[in-house]
């Protein structure tokens, strides 16, 4: 019995650290000040390139490419480049009618990193000063590039914009949108308040062009190239800024089956970069590189659905079998801290969308996350594509 208590305290000691971490940065995120922005006021106008890698995204790429041209930033100072991987001939024909560049790529095994590296290799050195990376479904707010340029005026080399949901048409999409905003609040706003780097998210992000090109030349990731970018940047002590008002609209997954595929890819990347950076993360901590260690520490976290489900289930069982025990109160306090962190990190307009239908979907997503842990080997070998534009909420798939 003593051994079981020891294991329980060890397990819930770890979850207590995770819950406390999330609550700390959730509270910090409440104090994030907006970055100064003066429309049209720039130290100088930088030449930018907006990359739109598109793998079999015929349903969304045309709108994304067209909308990327609708920036308030001078059209003479930025180009849109669609990296077309396995698009239909009809889609390519329509893209070529737009005032953009189309770079066709063909790979035996497609990855976003490969596509970006091909496009980067075709740009003459010195042509651009800033590289902006989007996903094929992303829609930029009209002032996105303006805000980025002013952030580069302030000396930043890497900037993450505010990626937010462009759809909340199903229960899965609502939960995915809430998850995105929790990440924005805790891993971006909260971190910047306490002087740490914002997390990257894979799109809606911008880099000093030469830095990005040199880093990408070293990256051959099957998935999670943004995680590798983060690790390399922070190991070099290059901080990442977050612009809460630079909006990039992103399509949220619309059914649990696609949610499972997406999370399988994300978890595989998380474990991979934890393994590759765990030792060096501790070494860098003792050299004063807290930012890099913090990123490695984040990779220890289980998916939030699993963390929440495990703590709630633990508290429920402990109150049934061990009511009043110190362990029971310990786990209950963690549950309260976690609920509070998620509440503070969720914008009011998103809270209003959360109903019983969405809450009842959480056990389904918990099971799918657990199931995804047994598919990580597949994700390490090939890129798992998550399609866009699927409207039905197929909870039984």
UniProtKB/TrEMBL annotation:
It holds the Pfam family Glyco_tranf_2_3. The chain crosses the membrane at residues 6-31, 305-322, 328-347. GO terms for molecular function: glycosyltransferase activity. SUPFAM superfamilies: Nucleotide-diphospho-sugar transferases (SSF53448). InterPro entries: Nucleotide-diphossugar_trans. Keywords: Glycosyltransferase, Membrane, Transferase, Transmembrane, Transmembrane helix. It comes from the Bacteria. Belongs to the glycosyltransferase 2 family. PANTHER family: POLY-BETA-1,6-N-ACETYL-D-GLUCOSAMINE SYNTHASE (PTHR43630). This is Cellulose synthase/poly-beta-1,6-N-acetylglucosamine synthase-like glycosyltransferase. It comes from Rhabdobacter roseus. The lineage of its organism: Bacteria, Pseudomonadati, Bacteroidota, Cytophagia, Cytophagales.
């Amino acid at each position: 019995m003593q051994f079981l208590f020891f294991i329980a305290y060890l397990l819930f000691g770890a979850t207590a650290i995770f819950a406390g971490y999330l609550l700390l940065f959730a509270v910090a995120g409440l104090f994030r000040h907006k970055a100064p922005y003066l429309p049209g006021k720039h130290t100088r106008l930088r030449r930018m390139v907006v990359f739109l890698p598109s793998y079999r995204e015929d349903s969304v790429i045309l709108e994304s490419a067209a909308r990327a041209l609708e920036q308030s930033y001078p059209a003479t100072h930025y180009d849109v480049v669609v990296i077309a991987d396995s698009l239909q001939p009809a889609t390519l024909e329509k893209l070529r009618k737009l005032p953009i560049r189309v770079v066709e790529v063909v790979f035996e095994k497609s990855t976003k990193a490969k596509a970006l590296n091909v496009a980067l290799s075709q740009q003459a050195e010195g042509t651009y000063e800033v590289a902006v990376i989007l996903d094929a479904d992303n829609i930029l707010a009209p002032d996105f590039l303006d805000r980025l340029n002013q952030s580069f005026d302030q000396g930043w080399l890497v900037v993450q914009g505010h990626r937010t949901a462009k759809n909340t048409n199903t229960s899965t999409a609502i939960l995915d949108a809430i998850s995105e905003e929790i990440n924005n609040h805790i891993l971006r706003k909260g971190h910047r308040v306490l002087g740490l780097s914002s997390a990257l998210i894979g799109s809606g992000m911008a880099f000093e062009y030469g830095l990005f090109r040199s880093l990408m030349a070293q990256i051959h990731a099957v998935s999670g190239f943004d995680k590798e970018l983060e690790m390399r940047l922070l190991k070099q002590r290059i901080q990442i800024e977050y612009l809460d008002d630079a909006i990039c609209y992103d399509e949220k997954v619309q059914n649990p089956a696609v949610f499972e595929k997406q999370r399988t890819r994300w978890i595989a990347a998380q474990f991979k970069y934890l393994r590759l950076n765990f030792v060096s993360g501790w070494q860098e901590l003792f050299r004063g590189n807290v930012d890099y260690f913090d990123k490695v520490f984040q990779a220890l976290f289980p998916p939030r659905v699993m963390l929440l489900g495990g703590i709630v289930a633990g508290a429920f069982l402990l109150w049934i079998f061990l009511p009043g025990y110190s362990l029971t109160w310990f786990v209950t306090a963690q549950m309260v801290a976690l609920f509070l962190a998620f509440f503070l990190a969720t914008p009011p307009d998103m809270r209003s969308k959360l109903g019983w239908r969405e809450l009842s979907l959480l056990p389904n997503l918990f099971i799918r996350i657990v199931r995804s842990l047994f598919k990580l080997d597949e994700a390490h070998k090939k890129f798992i594509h998550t399609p866009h534009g699927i409207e039905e909420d197929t909870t039984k798939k």
